[in-house]
Write a structure and sequence with these properties.
It comes from Puia dinghuensis. This is Lambda phage type II DNA modification methyltransferase. It holds the Pfam family MTS. GO terms for molecular function: N-methyltransferase activity; nucleic acid binding; S-adenosylmethionine-dependent methyltransferase activity. By secondary structure, the protein is an alpha/beta fold. It has ten helices and eleven strands. It has a seven-stranded mixed beta sheet, with helices on both faces. Strands 1-2-4-3 form a four-stranded antiparallel beta sheet, covered by helices on one side.
């Protein structure tokens, strides 16, 4: 076998595990195969498993990459998981008053922020949206999760929520679009706490300027995060936290 595609076509699927063919692969070829499988959600696990483990049946994704389709789920869905320390910080800033508060996580990923909410408020129920099917499968297994749909931006804002805690996608100003939409979903007296990139702060396009103008009209606090906050999740984008209250 001389190409990654040949290796991928020879892989076998056993439940949620992809097994490599029983042949010796040179280091560069193995590296390419490993990167491809990781980009579709696989993580190598040695020992008795000795395969790439996925959160759900990887057969369809494996067939795509074996056919030469380029996939990178992290980039496609802009999923960069929030670490536990930052998750707890966001929840503390949300200042949830009691478990009867109506709570939303609009880009819930695999539930990092949901878990942080429940560490602080063990009986909390959190409404969630999540684009990625694999992540919705993980979310559905967590206690206290109410999955309302896939794309939060398709949801009609009706001023329902007391607190919204989020780490939305950043690409193409999605973060500031999400934050404004989150604000529209708040009750009066509600609060949004969201991670955002610093792109809107450093640029002067129409969308960035409109967001800055709007932000100046509402009570808010901006907290810059240290460099590399999301390095372990796969991105070095500079980030901040926005805390916004709805009068």
């Amino acid at each position: 076998m001389e190409t990654a595609q040949e290796v991928l076509k020879a892989c076998t699927v056993n439940g949620k595990i992809v097994k490599l063919p029983d042949v010796q692969l040179n280091k560069p070829l193995y590296g390419e195969v490993k990167r491809t499988l990781r980009k579709i959600g696989g993580e190598w696990r040695g020992g008795k498993i000795a395969g790439f483990v996925f959160e759900q049946d990887p057969s369809e994704l494996l067939a795509e990459v074996a056919a030469g389709v380029k996939r990178n789920l992290q980039q496609e869905f802009q999923f960069f998981e929030t670490n536990p320390i930052l998750s707890d910080q966001l929840v503390a800033l949300a200042n949830i008053q009691h478990t009867e508060n109506k709570l939303l996580e609009p880009s819930a990923g695999r539930g990092a922020l949901v878990k942080a909410i429940q560490r602080a408020y063990s009986h909390a129920i959190v409404d969630c949206y999540e684009l990625q099917e694999m992540n919705r499968t993980i979310l559905s297994a967590l206690p206290g999760v109410n999955i309302l749909g896939e794309d939060f931006m398709d949801a009609k804002p009706i001023g329902l929520y007391d607190r919204i805690v989020a780490n939305p996608p950043f690409k193409n100003n999605q973060d500031i679009k999400h934050v404004f939409r989150m604000f529209c979903h708040l009750k009066k007296g509600g609060r949004v706490v969201s991670v955002v990139s610093r792109f809107w702060q450093e640029n002067t396009g129409r969308q960035e300027n409109e967001f800055k103008k709007w932000l100046g009209l509402v009570p808010h606090e901006k907290i810059d995060l240290k460099p590399g906050e999301f390095k372990a999740s796969g991105t070095n984008v500079a980030t901040s936290i926005l805390v916004i209250d709805k009068p």
